[in-house]
Every structure is written in structure tokens, then in C-alpha cells.
Amino acid sequence: MDIKKLLSATAISVMLATTSSISLAENSAPGSGPNPFSDCGIGAALFPTVSWAAVISNVIWDVGTTAVSSATLSPETCNGKNVKTAQFILENYDNLAEETAKGEGDHITAMLGILGCQLPSHGAIVADVRINMATQVGSESYSRIDTLGKASAYYDAVSAASTDNNCSA
Amino acid sequence: MAKYLFLLTHILCCSSVFASSPDITLDELEQQLIQISIQPVWLKLMRYDALDNKAIAAESNFDQNIRTKSAIHSADFFLSPDGGTVPLLELKATLSAFKHPVGDDPNMHPQCRFRGRYIWLKSQLKDSWFKKLSIMKCPDFERWSLAGTTHSISVVYATGYLGNPASYYGHTLIKFNAGDSSSSTKLLDVSLNYGAIVPDTENPLVYIAKGLLGGYESGFTHSEYFYHTHNYAENDLRDLWEYQLALTQAEVDLIVAHGWELLGKKNTYYFFNKNCAYRMAELLEVINGIQLASPDAPWYLPQTVVQKLSLINRGGKPLVEGIKYHPSRQSRLYSKYRQLDFDQRKLVKRIIDDTKTLDTNKFVVQPLTAKHLILDTLLDYYQAFDGKANKQNYNQILLQRYQLAPGVPRQVVDRLTPPHLGRYPSRSQIKILHNSRMGSGFAIALRPAYYDALDSSGTQVPFAALSMLELEIAVLDNDFQLRALNIVEIQSVNARATGLPNDRHWAWKLRAGIENQDLACRKNCRIWHVVADKGFSYSPRSKILVAGYLGMGVQDNRHDSGNLYFRTSTTAYWNITNKLKMGVDLEHREYIDGSYANADKFGLTFRLELAKNFELRIAYHKDQAREASVGLGYYW
Prior knowledge:
The complex is a heterodimer.
Chain A lengths: L2 H23 L10 H4 L12 H5 L23 H12 L1 H10 L3 H10 L6 H17 L8 H18 L5
Chain B lengths: L1 H17 L7 H12 L2 H6 L7 H8 L26 H12 L11 H4 L1 H11 L13 H6 L5 E9 L12 E8 L4 H4 L3 E7 L7 H10 L2 E9 H11 L4 E6 L3 H14 L4 E3 L6 H9 L17 H10 L1 E2 L2 E2 L1 E7 L2 H11 L2 H12 L7 H4 L3 H19 L4 H13 L23 E9 L3 E9 L1 E3 L13 E12 L2 E14 L13 E11 L9 E13 L5 E12 L8 E12 L4 E12 L7 E13 L2 E10 L1 E11 L1
Antiparallel strand pairs in B: 1-2, 1-5, 2-3, 3-4, 4-6, 5-9, 7-8, 10-11, 10-22, 11-13, 12-13, 13-14, 14-15, 15-16, 16-17, 17-18, 18-19, 19-20, 20-21, 21-22
Helix pairs in contact in B: 2-5, 7-12, 13-14, 15-18, 16-18, 18-19
């Protein structure tokens, strides 16, 4: 990797961190707005296939460099909180799917924390998402959907559940 | 003359820096700056090499500027043209730059770019200078550091594993703990990582050579902690140990700010000593009272960082105030698997063989908590070992989990020894010997790193072995011998394996280096050799492991031994008590070429742990001759 890529990675990482902080100040209701997967340019998993050399030298320069279009940062269309949540789901889909089946877990709590959902609402949200996910996982097409598609559907389920449960109140 | 030139230069270039300090003379200021520029913290912040006392005395007398060298070679890390080599000039340039007017982007102001320097210098100069400085707001840094909400620092140790050569020795990260310690925030904490910048398509041989010889640049990156839990614990199946440090808020702020100014700055990477562990240790050393790095040591291991941290006391209190264990997916699988009874383990195996077993009475009649445990074991199993090949099966297990009522079975985490409690990584050994052909003598052995089947400790793999550059020199029958120089020796076994598909009890060994042909050989005995074995290990109880191997060796042709041989070997280990261990090795060689007679070898070794870093070994070996030895080992 050359310096340009390194600086790019650093810059985007800073941008993502910036985005996460911006989200703390935003007042939009959790779950509102477009789906960042379809509307905000999130198009690739953050954990790409890493070359052997990168793995064995503990190089992680590419972490945090998901393809997020500039539109992502527009608060009118894709506020930082939603993008951040979507990214987190994409990175941790398997953990989230398993924890949702179990009814609780660290990743779920962290995700709802990003969304700004209050702790008392978590149980009801997870219960709603669990019902939705049971249908998804049970569908014939589930095995054919890639991680991006599954993460997008999960995001929709979380978004709807957090809205229905007025989770930031 | 040099003194006057120095003063003139100083006045010309720095008069604006001190214009706001009318209460002290220029000489006093100069002396103050000199003292600051040679302080360990300034040298650490700038990554300068340590100074010797003679150079410090010369600078204190205004004789000459101290010259040293910074490990960082990014030009934008320095504000003086000579900042990479002259601490005093960089200090003056930094103070001068702090007074620059703000431009279009406040984030590019030196007060914001070099936040660590700013915080520390402010604590040193205090009212004498900083009170008249225009204090900048740094939006990017504020956001990155979560507006100063980091309340503590953790050092995270990722255990090594034998599936990946450069990960044998583990890895070190630093985590900034913000908010409370609940799960809602810990995965989102900012963490710092350090590594080499390696091209994606690097040739393995080039990689090894450049990694060892300093052919790569390296630096710090940052990401949220969940990236690392994913990469290390979920993908690489490595446990994470988190050591939370007892630091003051000012110390925490300094480390965070220093981490910020290091992002994207380049060093030279050396696999053995100037590696992730060393650079993380350096970063922590900007705090007074923390001494971790060993600049002149030929090797520096991640485990050393946590071991040294655990020994530090400040103000009568230990520096490490808390240790957390984050088991990998594989460790979680093993913990759950051990909670299953015999019939439940059989059921897990049947479900893996055929997921229709989930519809049979064998599974259906299980109580809910047992179903949860069985399914969660299977989810961990597929994620750890068989997920990609059997995504369909994984999905069926997941669906079954959704169809049950939610719930989490009681978590039983294996009691493992934390890495800081393990012995030190390097060993020196002295042995007295008696050889049936050569009489009595003694031997000295040195193993820079790391462990063998009888002395693995802490988070090292039980009954496995990993050593590099192990050297043994002996004096027998008044004859000086280089008996062995093992470049590398690895024995990979998995005593915790479940025996499920893809988590079998396979084992392998690899040894390469120089050794004596056998115990009877006196002259021209040293041969180059490479031996590789593949086999099967079985651990009927946690304290016993038995393994059998088939292997092949390539060697020098000495005494018409030929260059090739096949071998069968068997090893058995028994941890008789926590401190007393026994190992037995049997080997039979069939030489393929040459006229050397086929050979049988035998070894029996007892190891007694005298103290954490002392051992006693009593061994008997038979290999053309018989040899008994008693050795005392010291780990350091």
C-alpha cells in the first residue's frame, strides 16, 4: 500500500469518527430517514479478503475505508447516525443475527447505543427485530442473499422497530 | 564561536517566541528550553533516541546542540528543518508554531496537529508562556477523541497462534475507554494499532527478508474496537486480554493526544524488535514512571509489554487496575462444548452430520436450556471451523435458534492463566552431562524465544512448541562442540480440539537448523537439516497428550548417511502436577539413500518448575550413545 492509500485510509477513518460524533448531536429520531445501504452508497463489506502479508504483519490499513459516498454525510438524506448504524450492522452481521436469536448481546446493545435508543426500549426492539429476522432466516432465499443484502434487511428491521418503540424517548 | 553563533541564531529565530515573557531573561529562557528539550518525555514524544550524559552536559553548557535521531521519518512530523535530529531546535520551532495565526482550517494549526506536544509543553511552561497564547479549538481532534470523554487506557494483548507465522508471538493494541464500561460503549471505543505497510501482493520470501531487515515502513492506525474483536477474536480465533491502566486524567489525555499526532507518521518496521509491541510501549512511556521498551534488545515480544506493565507500581498502587478476558469464537466453542454431557456431544456430532437430526426426538426432547447450549455450540462451531463450506447448515441452526424462545445459557468461561502471569520468554540453561561415549561435561543453551511442550505457560498453547534460534554449546571429553542451532522448531497440537469435522486432532512438527548427527558422533558431525512431520494428537485428559507422526527429513550427507530419510515418531506428555511435567519421545528413522544404518532414538525428560522463571530438567536420551543430563534454566 502506498502513502496515498494510507493517508486516504486515515482521512476516511477520521471522517467516520467525525461522523460518529456528529451523530451524537443530531436530533433526528432513531430509525428515521432512508436506508443507508440503498440510499447512501454503502456498497462493500469492511472486512475484505486480506492478503496473507497484510494478515501476518497485522496490517489493517484498510479498516474503516468502506465505500461511503459523499452523499452519506449529507444530513438531509443520510444522517451520520444512520450511516454509522448501517456500517456497524454490515461489519457485525453474523454476531447481530445470532444475538438477536438469543435475545440479547453486546453487539445489539452497541448498535442500539449508536442509534441513540434508551436502554429500557432495547428489549422491545430486539423482540420486534427477532420476529422479523425469524421470517427472513426461514425464507428459502435467505441462503442466496449476500451479507450486504442481509445487513440491509436487518437495518430495515431495526429501523422500523426503533421507530415503533419510540426508542429515544 | 559555536556558542555565540548558537545564541545569535536562537535570538534571531526565537525572539518572537519569547516576546510575551518579559519576566525572565533570554539566558534563563534558553536554559529552561534546554532542560525541557532533554527531558525524557520530550524525547519520547518526538521518538528521539535516548541521550547519553556527555551530550546532555555539553548542551547544558551551551557548547553545542545535542544531536540524536528520531525514529519517525515523516517530514511533516517536524516543524524545524533539523527537527528530526536536534531536540532543542524542534522544541523552539514547536513553540514558535504554536503562536502562528489561525488559517482557514484550524485543524491544520500546529496546536491541533501536535496535540500531545501541546498538552505536555503546556504542563511544563505553564503560566510563564502559555497564558498569553491564543488557545486554538481543534474540531477534528475533539471529535476523534470523543470530546475528552476517554477516562482510561487499556493495553490489549491478542494471543499468538501457530496457524500464522508472524502471529506466533501475539499482538498488542491500545484502547481508549470512553463512557461507562457497559457493552454499549466498549465495542465503539477508539483503539490504536501498529503495523507494517506491506503491499498486497508481496512475495513471501521478500516479505520475510524485508520484515527482518527493516524493508517496510510502518505506523499507527486507529479504528473502533469492534474491528479488532472481529478480526482477531472472530476471524483469527485469537483470545484478547485487556489490561486497564490506573492513570490520572491528565495522563490519559496526554496519551490520547499523542496517539492523535502519531497517526499516519512513518517508522521503519523490524519484525523482531521495532514492532507493534515496542511502538505501543514507547507510546505509553510518555507517562512518567512507565518504563517498558528496551531499545537495544534484539527482540521484543507483545507478552513482554503486559508482563512489564503488571510489575509497575506507582504511588504504592499497581499500574494495572483491571484485566478482562475476551474469548475468541474458538474458545467460546470449547467452553460450551465442555459444558455438554456425553450424549449431548454425540447429538452435536449427529446434527453436523445431518441437520435433519434437529427434527428427531433426540433433539426435540431436550430441555430448552440444553437446546440453547447445543445450538449455540453449533453456531460457534460453524463460525470457527466450517461456516463457509456449510453456510446452509449454519443457517438451519440459526433458524432453529429463532424458532425457540430467546435465552442465553449460563456462561462458563474456562479458567486460563493471563499472559502477564506466564514466565518470561527467553531462556538460558546450563547443564551437566554424561555421555556413554564421550564422558562427562557440561553444556550451555540459549533460547531467545519462546516455549516447548514442557514449559508452555500463560496463553501459550499447551503441549505445543515454538522456538527460534535455539543454541546449545557443550564441552565433552575436553572437546568444544556446537551441538545444535535450531533456526526454528514448531510443534502444533490442539489439546482442546473437539474432534468434530475440521476441528480434528491433527498435529504437525517442523524443525530446521544445525545439529549433531547423533549423540555418539565426535568429528565433523554437524549437519544442516529440515524435518517435517504430520500426525495426530489425542488428549484423553487435560493433563495428558499423546501424538504420533509420520515425517520426512532432508539433511547434509555426512558419514554416508544420505540426504533423505523417513521417520515415525511418538510423543507423550503428562503434567503430573502443576509444576512437574514429563515428556517422552520415540523416533525411528529409515534412511533412503547412503549406507547409514536405520536408527532408533529415545528421550525422556522431566521438568520441575522451581519458581516462575526457574526450572530444573532431568533428561535421558539414547541415540547411538546414551546421555543423561541435569539442567538449570533461567527465563528472562
